[in-house]
Design brief:
Pathway: Amino-acid biosynthesis; L-methionine biosynthesis via de novo pathway; L-methionine from L-homocysteine (MetE route): step 1/1. The protein is of the alpha/beta class. The protein is built from 27 helices and 22 strands. Strand 20, helix 24 and strand 21 form a beta-alpha-beta unit.
Amino acid sequence: MASHIVGYPRMGPKRELKFALESFWDGKSTAEDLQKVSADLRSAIWKQMSEAGTKYIPSNTFAHYDQVLDTTAMLGAVPPRYGYTGGEIGLDVYFSMARGNASVPAMEMTKWFDTNYHYIVPELGPEVNFSYASHKAVNEYKEAKALGVETVPVLVGPVSYLLLSKAAKGVEKSFDLLSLLPKVLAVYKEVITELKAAGATWIQLDEPVLVMDLEGHKLEAFTAAYAELESTLSGLNVLVETYFADIPAEAYKTLTSLKGVTAYGFDLVRGTKTLDLVKASFPAGKYLFAGVVDGRNIWANDFAASLSTLQELEGVVGKDKLVVSTSCSLLHTAVDLVNETKLDDEIKSWLAFAAQKVVEVNALAKALAGHKDEALFSANAAALASRRSSPRVTNEGVQKAAAALKGSDHRRATNVSARLDAQQKKLNLPILPTTTIGSFPQTVELRRVRREYKAKKVSEEDYVKAMKEEIKKVVDLQEELDIDVLVHGEPERNDMVEYFGEQLSGFAFTANGWVQSYGSRCVKPPVIYGDVSRPKAMTVFWSAMAQSMTSRPMKGMLTGPVTILNWSFVRNDQPRHETCYQIALAIKDEVEDLEKGGIGVIQIDEAALREGLPLRKSEHAFYLDWAVHSFRITNCGVQDSTQIHTHMCYSHFNDIIHSIIDMDADVITIENSRSDEKLLSVFREGVKYGAGIGPGVYDIHSPRIPSTEEIAERVNKMLAVLEQNILWVNPDCGLKTRKYTEVKPALKNMVDAAKLIRSQLASAK
């Protein structure tokens, strides 16, 4: 019985790629240094999978930024502003597209389906001159082969690539991206031909958009594309991989009828209904790659349940045509549990990271073939039983409090217009008030102090002193820049979710459970293993300290319940919404303590609310109902004069704007600049928004410093569709990943732009 891995984490067990990328970007190392680190990581990954017995090992899943940008490079689809003139695309053009450079901005970045991973959105139009401009897929296949490892080269499928793209600036909105399919397929044919010539016998084409609600003409594009590729694919075994959700019946029918395709991969963890489709009708002679090991979470597989599912499928597709696989790429999970030397032994026994999931896939394949590892299966059953019966998982008081939430929608008693009036009397802000999103740059020294405090090498007194000095520096800088509503800079926080999870019950933390978010940015999601509560105040000390340093309003900074949920590895033994309500009650306690502590502006970030939206429209309403309700629970008890902010970043918001309004926040700051101000279009189309709103005026994920004039132009575009009395001026996101040499001039230009527009508005009266 064969085994397969859809994809694997790239960063390395100790984030080796992250540090190599940042060293290269900072000019401290060469392209050769970066490529050496990358090659070593790839070699280790292939060797690990090979030694575990994996038959179908992926290649070309290792990206320096993301796999969609790799595909853009492969197709030579570089926007003109980057000055690409042909030939093999180098790292300079590649990273300019991803990060921008001194003269031009980066391409838009958005969420990869409903994950916390991001991709760079291709900008396409009728004038794009597609050409085979990156031979990475072939080179990596040859690299593995030279090491004695036969791999399955992985490409983002041509139809998914186009449907995940956007029309470039200046291209008609009505432009049909699928009209580019013939040009794109011409390049795919070249790539596939080279892979065959290099000796590849299998190829994996990822077509994840098939799990979405697709109109008929989009499904027809798959049929046309694979019919066009059929002769080129001849002689290869072709796997079309889907993941993240159930595949709709019509899409399943389309997929299983595609010309030239040998095998189909399905997510059977998040796509449980797909099982029924497979059982009802599966094409004879084709392979089924059954994704029974969860690539999105870190819980150990239930071997008994998975084996039962696989045995049932074996009866449908045949013993020699069933391949045991992961539900999706393991990119979305942590790398190796072996690195967790400090994690509680009981909880550790309940988990499986990427390296362990490779073992799980192969153990299931062997068991299915009649070579069951009895000791491994017995240990798995014992761990699952331990988790089910552990008293640390359940807190009766928390369960009762969450159950008592039913029957109320937890809205604040007064409407937003009246609240804003009460808040303005208290805060006395100018029109177009300026603020930032929360974090300020985290210097090497700051990280060192925090690290040494955690390791108990620095006393609490010295730690508090260092944090106080940093907060004072940030407060003084904001006052010097004349920002209206200040933040304390969050020097005590390494991560906006980890910080809160460490102080809430029901959470566990890893030492090296890093997961890539985008580029070199990694996050370390907490593990929610049990019922959640707040033993004591979490942020009041720092916020009150910061407020005492200034007469200007100081924002209390919290992470919202939906974001904590979506950016954690969440327990899978109860519905997600029940866990979210528990977190909401814990944050509610903190909000009310901040208010009592004299904090009049409280920001509850819901950066990840949109990313949790299910991929199927039929499931949207239920998710948005409990997600928005969870946010309202957090602040339903505050006074009218307490201003509640929220923040959202990097996603498509227009389709959920009414749910955003229903959150009933007083002010929302929201990503806008990097997505060509698509957010503003919803207001142009007549949506009325009465609360405060701050669409981001510049992209903080790029080192580029925008000019005062550029920011002023953005603000004027906003004023064309939003009332001046509700508009705020702020960056797109927090400033943690930037340097002070970038932050200071960018914020100065932002404040100067706000003042310039204020004076123009005053003159126009």
